[in-house]
Specification:
Cysteine hydrolase, Isochorismatase-like_hydrls, Isochorismatase-like_sf, Rossmann fold, 31% helix, hydrolase activity, globular, 6 strands, hydrolase, alpha/beta, six-stranded parallel beta sheet
C-alpha cells in the first residue's frame, strides 16, 4: 500500500497576498484537515534564504530581482506560512532554495525516511513550484496526485492547461473535494 504525504508548497504570506481567490485558503485548509484526519503527513515547503541572499546568483532570472528587497530572507514576515493554513506541532517544514520543492532542500531525505512513495501536491504557483516539483518527483518515481483547486497561478489559462493537459501525463488530477472524499473512506 502506498504511503502518501500532502505537500503544501509556497503558501507564504508574501505569495498568497498576490491573489484574490477568497476560497483558496479555506479549500486548502479542508485538504489539510482531511489529510491529518486520515493520518496523511502534511509537509510544508517554503522558499527561504539567508540574510543578503547569498544563495542567489545574479544569473538566476527567477530570483535575482528579490536580492535587493530582502524578500523571503530570515526575518521577512512575507516568508511566513499563511496563518490560515499554518503548520501544527508535528508537521514538517522544508525550506527550499529554488523553484522545485526538492532543489536545495532535504525533502527527498525526509520522504525516504518516512517511507513516503506517493505525493499529493498543492501550492502557489501551478506554473512554478507545482510544475517543477511534479516533474522532479515523477523522475524520482513517486506516485503523484495534484489537487487542481488546491493550486493557484497568476495566469488562469496556464493553470487550466497544466492541470487539464500536462499534469495528467504524470499524475492523477482531482479536486480537493474528490480527494477529501477518497481519503475519508
Amino acid at each position: 500500500m502506498a504511503h502518501s504525504a500532502l505537500l503544501v508548497m509556497d503558501v507564504q504570506r508574501g505569495i498568497v497576498n498576490r491573489f484574490e481567490d477568497a476560497g483558496y485558503l479555506p479549500r486548502l485548509r479542508g485538504a489539510i484537515d482531511a489529510g491529518r484526519a486520515a493520518g496523511v503527513p502534511v509537509i510544508y515547503v517554503v522558499i527561504g534564504f539567508r540574510t543578503g541572499h547569498p544563495e542567489i546568483s545574479a544569473r538566476n532570472k527567477s530570483f535575482s530581482a528579490i536580492t535587493h528587497t530582502g524578500a523571503f530572507a530570515e526575518g521577512d514576515a512575507g516568508a511566513e506560512i499563511h496563518p490560515d493554513v499554518a503548520p501544527r506541532p508535528g508537521d514538517i517544514v522544508v525550506t527550499k532554495k529554488r523553484v522545485s520543492a526538492f532543489a536545495g532542500s532535504d525533502l527527498d531525505v525526509v520522504l525516504r525516511a518516512g517511507e513516503i512513495d506517493s505525493l499529493v501536491l498543492t501550492g502557489i504557483a501551478t506554473s512554478g513550484v507545482v510544475l517543477s516539483t511534479l516533474r522532479q518527483a515523477a523522475d524520482l518515481d513517486f506516485g503523484l496526485t495534484v489537487l487542481a483547486d488546491g493550486c493557484l497561478d497568476p495566469d488562469p489559462e496556464v493553470h487550466r492547461v497544466l492541470t487539464g493537459k500536462v499534469f495528467p501525463r504524470q499524475a492523477d488530477v482531482v479536486t480537493v473535494d474528490e480527494w477529501v472524499m477518497a481519503v475519508g473512506r
